[in-house]
Amino acid sequence: MGPEILNIIQSRRSVRQYAEKPIEEDKLSMILESARLAPSASNSQPWHFYVVKDAGKIKALGEKMPLGSRVVANSFIADAPIVIVATAGPIDFLHKIASAIVNKKWYYLDVAIALEHMSLTAWELGIGSCWIGWFDEKKVKSLLNIPKAEEVIAFLTLGYPKEGVEHKIKPRKKLEQIMTEI
Ligand SMILES: Cc1cc2nc3c(=O)[nH]c(=O)nc-3n(C[C@H](O)[C@H](O)[C@H](O)COP(=O)(O)O)c2cc1C
170 CB less than 6 Å from ligand 1? Predict the structure, then answer.
């Protein structure tokens, strides 16, 4: 018997087809709480989460893709009952300097951790999610009136998995391929 968190990680998969069932407010609060508690560089908490529930805006998000309607990838976003649009910024001066010294965008890492916390918490609650990194930032910012000083990092769709369809498990590399003991 491994730790419960490992069972959640092992069974999670991206869900791109959703049941027509709304997400309960108490469950949504727990999902957001797991983002709020995520670690971040110097505890900077550079994130903001736009919890999009408006069906019209969600449909529009599914269309705000870099290559427009010529590429249909991500049109499934339109069927999600909730989409969380995660931004970072403004990034404070000291944080910018420190991360420039090591040449790493820490705020990307910070937001990514928070999003994955949400994805795993959602999964434990029976709710599926899918990360979205393919979107047109300019169009998304204008649609949601996101302040200039914020950068959209990624979205997370949320929705109960549609029943009767296969939510495929993606293969992973073997541990020997990705690990070096020194
Ligand atoms: C940073 C990031 C960006 C992603 N962007 C998209 C996306 O735009 N559209 C999509 O359908 N899936 C997207 N995904 C989901 C990945 O395709 C998925 O996590 C991967 O294929 C592994 O499958 P699994 O999540 O089911 O294990 C993204 C995942 C990450 C971490």
Answer: yes
